[in-house]
Amino acid sequence: MKLALPCACIARVAAFLAASAALACAPLAQAEEVASVNTNFHITGSDRVVVEAYDDPAVQGVTCYVSRARTGGIKGTLGIAEDPTEASIACRQVAAIKIPEPLRQQSDVFTERMSLIFKTLHVVRVVDSKRNTLVYLTYSDRVATGSAKNSVTAVPMPAGTTIPVR
Question: What is the pTM of this model?
Answer without folding.
Answer: 0.71
